[in-house]
Inverse folding.
């Protein structure tokens, strides 16, 4: 059954729009608070946010809801999503909240909730919270001395910085490396440069001057051109681009070339395999990861477990099957030895450790495999279900037969808009183009 408020990654929408209002945030605070009030201790919730102007109104509305049901609130300030997950565990909080719309423009915002163990909520718990949001909770509010209070945690940033630094092997520091870090004017604009500098790197920054409106604006992991230019300008060894809430990372080598999540996962998996810390016999990635990654892992005697698109599905497979490395081509990298969600900074630090140990240029370290020609096209339609149309079904079947066992075809509908994404890959680039174009044209004709 479709849910009213929660989507694939919490609640997200236009701030003060039809969906995401202060009234909703207040009710989320009350409902989620009631769901996670446990025992007779002073229950606590930690709240982090990115740098959007609307974070102030959502933060205060949530706090009002939580304190109204007797929870104590700890404000973390601007903080990466993975830091909130980590601090929820570290501070023994009963609930964690991140206010962010990730890589979306500043007008949007969102609410992500974390369990006491730092993992995102299950669909079942989100459904229960939705039911409570729609319920009159007046009789369940705290009274008198039971009403919660709010605190500001001034040490939260230092806690996270120290935690990320400890993920490097003990004999490794970053001295001698010139690093450009692009924080997307987002949640990591303070913590990421400090962590890199304290580890010994010479640090150059962009995207570290948030004004409430410039998050992800021509900077960050979804817009790497500024980072590429800066790397070449200062002759850096590496460029690191985070997104608005810093759970995603894209790398740029010393030549200004972009290195995606597939190559990054390959480097980390091979490195961890060599030191005996890789679990699960491979890694987990989505159906969108390149066939070249799968072939490379096979050559190492490792497997690639594929999931549906979305970091939550990657994490579910990792936990169910015992993997400790997983992620997406887009840069969500989950290293479960350290995190319960994607962490762009920690993933980048694992790569930098390999660079230091190898004593090689980043471009040499990160070219683990040749990408198989891949093409992705998004087709917007107006109505109906084009994938059920007889002509579309026939063309898709014919295309799969043409690609045969040496290629892949992925067709998926967007969960948030009337768009169908068509992706094909094969060693024959001309065939890839022909297959994707034919399917896309057919969908357009019938939609």
């Amino acid at each position: 059954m479709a849910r009213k408020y929660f989507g694939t990654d919490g609640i997200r929408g236009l701030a003060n729009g039809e969906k995401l209002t202060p009234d909703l945030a207040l009710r989320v605070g009350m409902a989620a608070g009631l769901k996670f009030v446990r025992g007779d201790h002073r229950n606590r919730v930690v709240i982090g946010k990115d740098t959007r102007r609307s974070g102030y109104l959502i933060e205060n509305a949530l706090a009002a809801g939580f304190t109204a049901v007797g929870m104590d609130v700890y404000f973390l300030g601007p903080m990466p999503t993975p830091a909130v997950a980590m601090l929820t565990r570290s501070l023994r909080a009963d609930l964690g909240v991140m206010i962010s719309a990730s890589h979306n423009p500043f007008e949007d915002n969102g609410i992500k909730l974390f369990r006491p163990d730092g993992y995102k909520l299950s669909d079942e718990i989100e459904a229960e919270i939705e039911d409570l949001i729609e319920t009159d909770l007046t009789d369940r509010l705290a009274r008198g001395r039971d009403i919660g209070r709010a605190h500001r945690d001034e040490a939260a940033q230092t806690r996270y910085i120290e935690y990320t630094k400890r993920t490097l092997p003990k004999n490794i520091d970053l001295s001698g490396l010139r690093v450009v870090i692009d924080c997307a004017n987002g949640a990591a604009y303070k913590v990421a440069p400090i962590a890199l500098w304290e580890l010994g790197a010479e640090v150059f920054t962009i995207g570290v001057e948030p004004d409430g409106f410039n998050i992800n604006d021509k900077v960050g992991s979804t817009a790497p051109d500024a980072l590429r230019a800066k790397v070449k300008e200062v002759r850096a060894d590496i460029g690191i681009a985070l997104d608005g809430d810093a759970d995603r990372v894209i790398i740029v080598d010393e030549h200004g070339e972009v290195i995606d999540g597939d190559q990054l996962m390959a480097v980390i998996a091979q490195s961890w395999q060599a030191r005996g810390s890789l679990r699960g016999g491979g890694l987990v990635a989505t159906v969108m990861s390149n066939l070249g990654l799968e072939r490379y892992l096979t050559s190492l005697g490792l497997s690639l477990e594929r999931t549906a698109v979305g970091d939550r599905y990657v994490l579910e497979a990792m936990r169910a099957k015992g993997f400790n490395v997983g992620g997406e081509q887009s840069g969500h990298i989950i290293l479960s030895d350290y995190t319960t969600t994607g962490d762009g900074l920690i993933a980048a630090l694992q790569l930098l450790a390999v660079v230091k140990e190898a004593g090689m240029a980043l471009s040499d370290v990160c070219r683990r495999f040749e990408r198989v020609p891949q093409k992705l096209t998004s087709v917007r339609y107006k109505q109906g279900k084009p994938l059920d149309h007889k002509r579309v079904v026939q063309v898709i079947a014919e295309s799969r037969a043409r690609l045969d066992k040496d290629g892949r075809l992925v067709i998926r509908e967007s969960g948030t808009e009337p768009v169908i994404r068509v992706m094909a890959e094969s060693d024959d680039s001309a065939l890839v183009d022909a297959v994707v174009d034919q399917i896309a044209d057919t969908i357009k004709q019938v939609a």
